[in-house]
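Quick entry, no commentary yet.
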Amino acid sequence: MTIAIIDYGSGNLRSAEKSFARMANGATVTLTADPDVVAKADHIVLPGVGAFGDCAQGLRAIDGMVEALSERVLNQARPFLGICVGMQLLCAKGHERGLHEGLGWLDAQVHPLEVPPELKVPHMGWNNLRVEGQHKVLDGLDGEDVYFVHGFAARFSGETSALAASVDYGGPVVAAVARDTFIGTQFHPEKSQQAGLRLIENFLEWRP
């Protein structure tokens, strides 16, 4: 099995690489900016740290990467995990430092967090996960604490069937989304200790 972690100029790649390598059980973990590698990978991971627009621009700056992703995940049904801004990029648009186009895999947009004045933005630290429904990748994680660092969050524009998990931070906040062959987490599995490693293990065992 091959696991491709996409390197498009976002931060925190080494931390993600180490966590996936720890749970890979002999599989090959590759940091890559090569669409041909992504087009052959068994599992694909899109991390993300920074602003939505910068990450979207960085991903599109790699010739053929968006096309390789869409073909491998949406058409060939290979499992995909987006992390933090990597999850946000699944949405249609992001409203951070202007309006920017996402991948459009979900009918959702990314907006600033709206919280009571006593709560800080960005939302940084541990929060209790509420899993909505059932999903293989989130198995065993309901009620677990996971680690967040974000000032923006996804909001669904219409139906919410892709909502996979939420947390309470001055109200409900989207913590994970999932549909068909892809899943995304607003929190960082690679920073979420045992809960995060459980999620990574579940993802690597997932066959949509």
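second:
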Amino acid sequence: MKIPDIACSEECLLRAGNTNCGGCGMSLGLNFLARALAEADETCQLAIPACCGIVAAGAFPTTAYSVPTVATTFAAAAAVASGMAAIRDLNGETHQVICWAGDGGTYDIGLATLSAAAERNEDIVYVCYDNEIYGNTGGQRSSATPPGARTTTTPAGKREAKKDIVGILAAHGVPYAATVSIAHPDDAARKFRTAFETTGTSFLLLHSPCPTGWKSEPGDSVHLVRLAVRSGLFPLYEVFDGVRYRINDAPDWTDPGEYFARQRRFATDAVDLDATRASCRRRFARLETLAEAFPA
């Protein structure tokens, strides 16, 4: 599928002059977000914790973001966004309050405030661009790092499984949670719009390739996340109210070997492909069971 052209103008969410690397999935994700805001005739304010997303703004007093943006501490993005939403509502305003956070500030350091905001059902949109490492601080492992991936703190490859963050948010009963791929732009745009239309906490998990941390070619970024969807490594689905499930794109069970081979963060023998294939099929079978028993 061809990635749609997104014209750059004064209304661009991420403007020229940002510090993002070539092939950065987060940059594409921000452009998709900008497209969805424009199509929905929405405006937004951003809360961004310590991560590549806030470094992208550039050096003070200039900024590459075209909307009001608050830089928060690593742990506080959801808490700050809760305050921003409260002020919005007190002032009778209608803009979206959006957290834009990496996996380190979501799966790990920011999980407590995210959980608290979800439990209160704050009217915010929380987007985790998941590049599966602490990309801003040198490429350390996070609990989003997949098994076998080499990072600066797991030079022999990570041993533990990746945390199921969508399952955790679904367990909070949030009104809307979904996975998003930059290789599926129409699906991504629809999910952003659904999040905007939802009252209460919406959580979107964006698979975000990082050529620097993944040791991949910048031109491969979209291809890699497409392979992740096709092989079942990153299923596309939605969860409503923590109960109702909808699968958006079924895997065709493309062999995941190419996905791993195109990233030098995985040693040749670091990934058990047979076990990976079996794990992907078990996980998708579970999603199919949930979607059949509790359809959206």
